[in-house]
Amino acid sequence: MDHIVTVQDVVTAFADFMEPTAAELDAIELESPLILAEVDLLDAHIVTLDRTPNELDARRVRRARNRVLSERRALANRASSATGGAA
Predict the structure, then answer these.
(1) Spatial separation of the C-alpha atoms in residues 2 and 11, rounded to whole Å
(2) 64 Cβ contact partners less than 8 Å away, ≥ 6 residues apart
(3) Average pLDDT over residues 39-49
(4) What is the percent of the chain where pLDDT is above 90?
């Protein structure tokens, strides 16, 4: 007879006391402009899925992509200035 045993980590992985720490919330807040820019880029790509992209669609995707790159650069610069390095 085989015994079925629960794994303690799996059972308690989503317990109520396991909430994000202040550092994790700060990291999310720091990355939120990049996350929003990536959502805009995804929206721009979704719009072009069901039709042939026109010039306006191409411009929207290009602007969204540039915004993502800009936010990535800004995030890298903020992270490097916090650690004292250069980006």
Answers:
(1) 20
(2) 37, 40, 41, 43, 44
(3) 95
(4) 59
